[in-house]
Amino acid sequence: MPLPKIRKISLRSIACAAALSLCAGLGSVSAFAQSRDFAETSMAKDTRIFELRTYIAAPGKLDRLHKRFRDHTQALFVKHGMTPVAFWAPVDQPNTMIYVLAFPSIEAKDKAWAAFGKDPEWVKVRSESEPDGSLVAKIDRMFMKAADYSYLK
């Protein structure tokens, strides 16, 4: 019997799996709001959600983006009720940063992002760190909820 073809796994899939594996040991970390792609029976009875974000930095600005996260953004996330889970710098996709945030619920996510966006400290930090234009060229995001067989349940 021939072996099945091996499917190439995307960096996003690996990051997602890594984030969920990492979160397995973090009892206070949130899991994601109900996904339309899963039947209710396969989802954990947890309202927590995760947000996976992938940033493509503007050319030549990745180091400044990491600095802003390291020195300011991460603390502001916590201030507004977001739980930073992990941050990655992909080795095979330069100019890319990936991170995962956790929230108690989809409503908490919406409230936290709204407050973060209006925070005077964030507005100042963003403005000061982008004198020559945005540090980010593209943002992709995905919201996830733990499956019932996940270690997160």
Written description of the protein model:
This protein has four helices and four strands, in the order H-E-H-E-E-H-H-E. It has 153 residues and is α+β, with helices and mostly antiparallel strands. The chain has a single domain, classed as Alpha-Beta Plaits, CATH 3.30.70. A four-stranded antiparallel beta sheet has the order 2-3-1-4, sandwiched between helices. Helix 2 runs antiparallel to helix 4 (120-129). Mean pLDDT is 80; it is low at 1-11 and 13-39.
Briefly note the CATH topology name: Alpha-Beta Plaits
- Count structural domains: 1
Task: Give the CA-based shape.
Answer: globular
Roughly what percent helix? Answer: 25-40%
Largest sheet: 4 strands, antiparallel
Number of helices: 4
State the low-pLDDT regions, or none: 1-11, 13-39
Strand content: 15-25%
Task: Compile the SSE list and pairings.
Elements: H1 11-23, E1 49-57, H2 62-79, E2 83-88, E3 96-103, H3 106-118, H4 120-129, E4 136-144
Antiparallel strand pairs: 1-3, 1-4, 2-3
Structural features:
alpha+beta; Alpha-Beta Plaits; 4 helices; disordered N terminus; single chain; 153 residues
